[in-house]
Amino acid sequence: MNNHRGKKVFVLGGARSGKSSFALGQASALPGRKAYIATAQAFDDEMKVRIERHRLERPDDWDTFEEPLDLPGLLAKIKDSHDVILIDCLTLWLSNLMLADKDILKETESFISALTTFGGLLFAVSNEVGFGIVPGNEMARKFRDLAGTLNQRVAAAADQVYLIAAGIPIKIKEI
Which has the minimum average pLDDT: 56-70, 99-113, 155-169? Predict the structure, then answer.
């Protein structure tokens, strides 16, 4: 595990691309105490089913934390007790911040700071939403733009970045 200390891995992909499965598979193969940070909120029955399916996919040796808003605070709280952390996913976190009317740029800066100072191995999963058409309403365009900025910031801070397309991981950055 020591050769992985402080490493940050960013995994991007479209909806149902296999990004979460890839990140979970990579992280599960590593030694140490593992934490899964879920950012999803179950606002409807369909989302409840998705969340439960994700829970069942995780091996038993993972500690699960559900945190829709305060990722930096949770990282600070568990950084000394876990060697491997997987955050799934940043775009849901961004949606939660927007719905809670938070200062997105401030929250992004706080998250980047927590990410770069975390000494363990961290995987962060996010949707790549910029490949599609320009959204037809202002809120969706704002989300797309904020997600693009967030993804750029996390990719810049990461040691490795993978783009997942049709279940195939493509490494696009390695430090």
Answer: 56-70
pLDDT of 64 strictly over 50: yes
Question: For the chain, what is the largest distance between any 2 Cα atoms, rounded to a whole number of angstroms?
Answer: 48
Return the CATH fold of 2-174.
Answer: Rossmann fold (3.40.50)
Q: pLDDT digit string (tens) for 93-125?
A: 999 999 999 999 999 999 999 999 888 899 999
Answer yes or no: 54 catalytic. Answer: yes
Distance (Å) of CA 107 to CA 46, 72, 96, 97? 28, 8, 11, 8
The tokens for 170 are 């493509």
* Domain spans in the chain, listed from the N-terminal domain onward: 2-174
Q: Tokens at residue 29, please?
A: 């193969």
Q: Which two tokens stand for residue 67?
A: 């945190």
Secondary structure, 3-state, the chain: CHHHCCCEEEEEECCCCCHHHHHHHHHHCCCCCEEEEECCCCCCHHHHHHHHHHHHHCCCCEEEEECCCCHHHHHHHHCCCCCEEEEECHHHHHHHHHHCCCCHHHHHHHHHHHHHHCCCEEEEEEECCCCCCCCCCHHHHHHHHHHHHHHHHHHHHCCEEEEEECCEEEEEEEC
The active-site residue out of 54, 79, 153, 173 is 54
